[in-house]
Amino acid sequence: MRTALVTGAADGLGKAIAAKLLDLGDRVALLDVNAERLERTRSEFAAQGGQVLARTADVADPAQVEATVRAVTETWGPLEVAVSNAGIAPHQNLLDMAPADWRRVLGVNLDGTFHVATAVARNMVEYGVAGTICCVASGAAFSARLGAGHYCTSKAGVVMLAKCLALEVGREGIRVNAVAPGLIDHGHREGLGEFVPREYVERMRANTPLDRVGTAAHVADAVAYLCSDQAAFVSGDVLMVDGASGAGRYNLPWS
């Protein structure tokens, strides 16, 4: 049984990833900034027999992240798996954006991933654990989007952060990778609303060769693979989970 940490675990992708790791027999520490949603998720997993604990923390605050890593270690021992998933994606044009709005998204998405990944990596090095870290990026890391300059920039940074960290900790036996989801239906998220607007979904589907919307389970399966022994020689890489939407310009005429 491995000890795992998943951030942004109260709902959406984080909850699906945590559920997958629990199904694989891991014990999972759930981290989220929303205490009420997090407790509901913890209770749900515990009722299903999962070995879970919950920590309310803001990944943008390095002290809170460090405290979470210490608490998990004191309870279950050193971390062997970590998934940095917590993120936000407000819609706002760059020219209308205040510096505080820019910093908020970069602070959660990129700084938060830095805080989680480095805190966990230090924990693994300290205890001699050849563990694995997976960072949740996005197809937006490779393709600019209107109204999402801060989000795209943050996710591009997450990809490079994963690659750089993989170089630094590889000789410790620690693997670091990223997944880059495309159009994924995360369902209703309390306080955040439903999935994206229907018009957006249809336009994205039109540019997705597999012609469907992905599910949170698709992303969870990809994360599980990267964190498994089957990916023992995979590090510093990015696994696209996007139905080939990022492979090229799908809708251009061929003749």
- The best one-word shape is globular
Mean pLDDT: 93
Number of strands: 9
Strand order within the widest sheet? 3-2-1-4-5-6-9
Helix content: 40-55%
Under the CATH scheme, which class? Answer: Alpha Beta
Class by SSE composition = alpha/beta
Main sheet overview: 7 strands, parallel
CATH topology value? Rossmann fold
- What share of the residues does DSSP label as strand, in percent? 15-25%
In words, what does this structure look like?
The chain is of the alpha/beta class and 255 residues long. It has one domain (3-241): NAD(P)-binding Rossmann-like Domain (Rossmann fold). The protein contains seven helices and nine strands. The strands form two sheets. A seven-stranded parallel sheet has the order 3-2-1-4-5-6-9, with helices on both faces. Strands 7-8 form a two-stranded parallel sheet. Helix 4 links the parallel strand 4 (81-84) and strand 5 (132-136). Helix 1 (12-23) crosses helix 7 (216-226).
Q: Helices, strands, pairings?
A:
Layout: E1 3-7, H1 12-23, E2 27-32, H2 35-47, E3 52-56, H3 62-76, E4 81-84, H4 99-127, E5 132-136, H5 149-169, E6 175-181, E7 184-185, H6 198-206, E8 214-215, H7 216-226, E9 238-241
Parallel strand pairs: 1-2, 1-4, 2-3, 4-5, 5-6, 6-9, 7-8
Helix pairs in contact: 1-7, 3-4, 4-5
